[in-house]
Amino acid sequence: MKIRLACCAMAIALFSTAQAAEKQREWTGEPRPLRGDEQIYGGTLSDMLPPTRNERKMAIMVKGELAKELLAQIGPDVKQEQACSSSAH
């Protein structure tokens, strides 16, 4: 559940950043450096609280070309029953 939440948070945070790059990189299998930020919190993304021993989540924001590539790998929007949240936004 926490991994799903982190993935959803990352996808939301990356949406506008991922739109910027167009060029696709050739796969080499080599690791690449990351640019971005992380945030550890409790509560929800919309109402963050300090993390506690029993409730600790992590949001990750990746920037640059990698952001676009990650969003492309995630693919199109999923059906509501497969989404991270059951709320209808």
Task: Give an account of the 3D structure.
- This protein has 89 residues and is α+β, with helices and mostly antiparallel strands.
- The protein has one domain (2-22, 33-80).
- 30% of the residues lie in helices and 18% in strands.
- It is built from 2 helices and 3 strands; from the N terminus they run αβββα.
- The chain has helices at residues 2-18, 65-74; strands at 36-43, 48-49, 57-62.
- A 3-stranded antiparallel sheet has the order 2-1-3.
- Strand 1 (36-43) and strand 2 form a beta hairpin.
- Helix 1 (2-18) crosses helix 2.
- It is globular, with a radius of gyration of 15 Å.
- The model is unreliable at 16-21 (pLDDT under 50).
List the helices and strands and how they pair.
Elements: H1 2-18, E1 36-43, E2 48-49, E3 57-62, H2 65-74
Antiparallel strand pairs: 1-2, 1-3
